[in-house]
Design goal:
alpha/beta, single chain, five-stranded parallel β-sheet, four-stranded antiparallel β-sheet, 2 domains, Rossmann fold, Arc Repressor Mutant, subunit A, globular, about 230 residues
Length: about 230
């Protein structure tokens, strides 16, 4: 079954352009020109990924992002923000609110499709038979079910957060630089934004609660998971 992508942008030409390129790549696409129409769609559907313009006529895209991340039903749905706002502050704010990627206008449709595929790859289940990574007494990462538990309680993570945790936990005690983490997430399609990893790590720690101490910062180098 093809992945369902929701595209929210009030510029009809851009909406049509994105929809065309995604459809050609085999995705099932739903387009929305207002935040209200998109929210109505969410009442009956859960997309596999959302491409979200920040400047909509009726809603601020950041508010929609905040809404999605506040609901258990949509918390793990990847979000790519698409906007003309291109300052570092705007990018960081988008990441702070839970976006998985941030693409600025004007943009290359091919690059956007590549970003979509890269983000979706992070959410794919790993092959294997019940493989789990345990860290300390409280943290369990289930690679097959794409789930994380702290003291038996499930913790909802975005695909990016899950994969950063998986990368760090794959070699306990090993220090990963920010570039190595970005390479693990993006490969050839990685984006370069100094604070991207730091923002996601902060979110991870907040969500892990009592297990947050397992993710350690190595000043001037990067991050590691250590029991």
């Amino acid at each position: 079954m093809s992945k369902l992508i929701a595209v929210v942008d009030d510029e009809v030409d851009i909406l049509d352009l994105i929809s065309l390129h995604l459809s050609r790549s085999g995705f099932d696409v739903r387009g929305f020109s207002t935040g209200e129409d998109f929210l109505k769609f969410l009442s009956s559907s859960v997309p596999d990924l959302v491409i979200l313009d920040l400047m909509l006529p009726d809603w601020d895209g950041l508010e929609i992002c905040r809404y999605l991340r506040s609901k258990n039903k949509f918390r793990s749905v990847p979000i790519i923000m698409l906007t003309a706002r291109d300052t570092e502050m705007d990018r960081v704010l988008g990441l702070e609110l839970g976006a998985d990627d941030y693409v600025t206008k004007p943009f290359s449709p091919r690059e956007l499709v590549a970003r979509v595929k890269a983000v979706l790859r992070r959410g794919m289940l790993e092959e294997g038979d019940g493989e789990r990574i345990r860290v300390g007494e409280s943290l369990v990462i289930d690679l097959n079910r794409y789930e994380v538990f702290v003291d038996g309680e499930r913790v909802d993570l975005t695909p990016t957060e899950f994969n950063i945790l998986k990368i760090l936990a794959s070699k306990k005690g090993w220090v990963f630089t920010r570039d190595q983490i970005l390479d693990g997430l993006w490969g050839k399609e990685k984006i370069v934004l100094d604070r991207t990893v730091d923002v996601h790590i902060r979110h991870l720690r907040e969500k892990l609660g009592k297990a947050k101490h397992l993710i350690k910062n190595v000043r001037g180098v990067g991050y590691k998971v250590e029991e």
